[in-house]
Amino acid sequence: MSTLSSKKESEKIKISVGIVFYNPTSENIRQTFFNIKQLSSINIFDLSFYLIDNASTDRVLQKMIPQKLDKNVHCIKLIKNNGFGYGHNSIIDKLNSDYHIIMNPDIELKDIRGFTEAISYMQHHDNVALLSPLVRNQSDGEIQLLNRREPTVFDLFIRFFGPNIFPKRQSYFVKSKHGYDHIQSDENATGSFMMVRTAIFKEIGGFDTRFFMYFEDTDLTKRISTKGKVVFFPYLTVIHGWKRDNHSIKGIASMIKSMIIYFNKWGWRWI
């Protein structure tokens, strides 16, 4: 991979990290502060962290945050939970960075070398607007097949019924054969971890807040792709806890609502 260099030799690359919490577990919070410590150890970057409480109904986050925080760690408490995208958008005006990281609290980031290589890649490829990493399961280390194609109604429908329904089509959708071993374009980046150029994130106004949950990352990918390339970058690995609730009645209803918003916005692709 290419060697990292900043715009000026004496100028550190500025990186901001946004993490949205809603009723987090104590493990999520411990993991977040581990990630902050890990990233802060990279002295060639100027890092700032924004911990956004999306109107949690418990006090776990407040109780576990250290009384004294480093000056580059900022805590924001929102008075209402208006969704994942709204939470991330709440800090847009505060961002003064070259790159912004959108990261879930259940992400574990140990791959410091890969993180540095990802920043280096974006430094050397001005046309790349968003970078998505390789994601592995926390439980068994298996690759999560998140380098997906742009969805159709058919692709989303068959996934409800498990992997044995139209398996070749499902494999095609998640690029299971050749989608995880080399740098390539990404049509549908995962919102669990996104590395974006801050200027572009600001230019497009961040997330579309009509998506409370689900499809907000697919929509962001599509809008960012009008400003630059979106790439899957397998040389950065993150670990993801992978907690989803879209098979509950509430989760299914929320996903269907977001799906309708998405296809009404971008056109209904059936097959």
Protein architecture, described:
- The protein is α/β, with parallel strands linked by helices and 271 residues long.
- Helix content is 32%, strand content 22%.
- Strands 1, 2, 3, 4, 5, 6, 7, 8 and 9 form a 9-stranded mixed β-sheet that branches.
- The protein starts with 12 loop residues before the first strand and ends in a 5-residue tail after the last helix.
- The model has no long low-confidence stretch (mean pLDDT 93).
Comma- or semicolon-separated keywords:
alpha/beta, 22% strand, 9-stranded mixed sheet
How many distinct helices? 9
Alpha-beta content class: alpha/beta
Radius of gyration: 18 Å
Q: Which segments are poorly predicted (pLDDT under 50) over 5 or more consecutive residues?
A: none
- The amount of helix comes to 25-40%
Q: Which overall shape is indicated by the principal axes computed on the Cα atoms?
A: globular
Order of helices and strands: EHEHEHEEHEHHEEHHEH
Total strands: 9
Tell me the major beta sheet.
9 strands, mixed
Average pLDDT figure: 93
Question: Termini, distance in Å?
Answer: 38 Å
β-strand percent reads 15-25%
Brief digest:
The chain has 271 residues and is α/β, with parallel strands linked by helices. The protein has 9 helices and 9 strands. The chain has helices at 26-40, 60-64, 84-89, 112-124, 153-159, 167-173, 198-203, 216-224, 249-266, and strands at 13-21, 45-53, 73-77, 99-103, 107-108, 128-137, 184-185, 193-197, 229-240.
